């Protein structure tokens, strides 16, 4: 074996010192969830700064020829007993006083203490070089290697920069109304205590308007508690923007809310504004919890088992393959819940986990940025069982811990960073809507599975919409692709209406002991609301050439292998304040949707003619452009439709409104000239025409580099007025059209090889019986999708299992009536 100094000299040219901007992956393997704390530690390539676990570093060396790696291992230290220790091995935790993470007064983030061992390893013989060994080597070797080692260890790892370090929910901005707030000289003086709402006599959650001194109750919360919205209604009537929460006033400040800015704010002139109504800040004492304290209480309850309705029993922790917990990376429970469910679906298992070796072998040089690699890595981590081990108790001595509910689990940092990259919401550490993330992820799967198996087909189905003109009784049929059934919640169909009315009456009378009653909605009522015809009052009928009324009926044109149902719990009140419906729905374990299958055109039924309305003309003799409703065009464009298609939709529906234009779009999406420029009668070309010659060669090259043909890139750019970003979105949303285009536009020989048959219309969908069984559901706790907590329940081997981030336990009382997203799989007849 060659001398280690000579070997190090021979690879010296490949050893780099990290520069600003270099991505250093020293906390997580690019191909697995190995870390410095794992057995074998992690090996960081000293050239690319990619990290690899012990099982993958040899593969990277063989593939790239790189030989020098920095081997990092960490071993957890035993914690010393604190002077204030209660004797149980756990020092008492301070109660949070600030809605924050990682700063004084906020939620505590436990920091583990580790002993770290760092050395250079030269492959393939795994020769080791420590910092002490470098002292005996030539200066040029010692200097370069030492700089590289220290640079890697000093650099912020990618996972560190993505992780939540500090978050402060109390950072408030000065209100724009504070400096020049108008205050009425109406003689109103507010007593130091005994406040009641001037409308309903409530004595809790009381706010005083800082303009006129009106004392009114605050907003009603999703569960019926809080107030009756009288302070908000007063703002809507008067426009007076600022209010202070009585009972929170102290010499240090108070809760001030700006209805105009829709946020908690600072008021630098608060003492002056309060004094106007006879309130001396310096003598006031706090008698009510501040909004921050209320939010802290909610956040402390979020991680407790009673929130998810299983507090009556001690839940048994589960470990093993398919029972792996996921760490919460700071409001990432929405992602955790969705991915746990998806990797229960056979299509996702077979596409990613069964093929993980092939996917890793074909991965690009930087696998941290490869979608398939990171999805396969996540799926294998969840299903293999390698990381489904009890987490050691930080307060116990090493090796002394008993199995607990928490697991070591996996932290999907690379995956979260990759799927959220460039997205305005999923790239942040804020809470998100699980349904929106599910659709976002399915869209990414669609983009990355143009060739080969596409697991999202398991959820894809066709919806048939039938519109019947009430005046002519003629019909129009359209189909669209969907992945989720959105189930309405008819609150007026509650089975316990009298109980709800009684609780409401007691609340309006100021009875603070009135119970919170949850509306019980029959599942059958939700299905009836989904299937009943919808009345369209502003429909442009091509049969009568005028606006009239119509009915729209929605049915399944195909039934997917796996059906996702979203309960539409989140809505807006009359004041446009988001709220969550607190409902219990008796969702069944089995479902038969056969009665909702679409039937298509019936015998003797006449279809609405494809006739455009008369062209719109101006008084001018010569018309150079159509007169279009710009606001309708803009609304349609914001929905993601091509500009020219939106212009045609508005033109051909005679400027009769967004509903008519939307109906036109849904009916003509499959037209070959759907995105072609609008051409007026008597003109050779329409405004906005983009000839091939004017297309940007740079834009064409960019799209071609993504795996599309030049003809496809040209079509996308033409459809989006030569705007690259819109063209990329367009091309990924028309993949099936492009597949057909490859056949129809590749020349006669290609067409003849297919026997001259037409390409299959529309996207590929699976179909079968409409009978299903429930296998998973995702539940949400909190006032809106933007806050709170998600958990999921999955049925495994006839046993319901609850996945609550790192906790994986056997479920005793799965709250199936309180779910948000329900997942069904087809059962055989």
UniProtKB/TrEMBL annotation:
Location of the USP domain: 324-827
Highest rank taxon of the organism: Eukaryota
Gene Ontology biological process terms in this record: protein deubiquitination; proteolysis
Residue sites binding Zn(2+) per the record: 197, 200, 217, 230
Gene3D superfamilies reported for this sequence: Cysteine proteinases, DNA helicase RuvA subunit, C-terminal domain, Zinc/RING finger domain, C3HC4 (zinc finger)
Binding site for substrate: 207, 219-222, 257, 259, 262
A GO molecular function held by the record: cysteine-type deubiquitinase activity
Catalytic activity: Thiol-dependent hydrolysis of ester, thioester, amide, peptide and isopeptide bonds formed by the C-terminal Gly of ubiquitin (a 76-residue protein attached to proteins as an intracellular targeting signal)
InterPro entries: Papain-like_cys_pep_sf, Peptidase_C19_UCH, Ub_carboxyl-term_hydrolase, UBA, UBA-like_sf, Ubiquitinyl_hydrolase, UBP13_Znf-UBP_var, USP
Active site (record annotation): 333 (nucleophile), 789 (proton acceptor)
Name of the top EC class for this enzyme: hydrolase
Domain UBP-type, residue spans: 173-281
Disordered, as annotated region: 75-98, 744-766
Documented EC number(s): 3.4.19.12
Family listed: Belongs to the peptidase C19 family.
Protein name: Ubiquitin carboxyl-terminal hydrolase
Organism: Poecilia latipinna (sailfin molly)
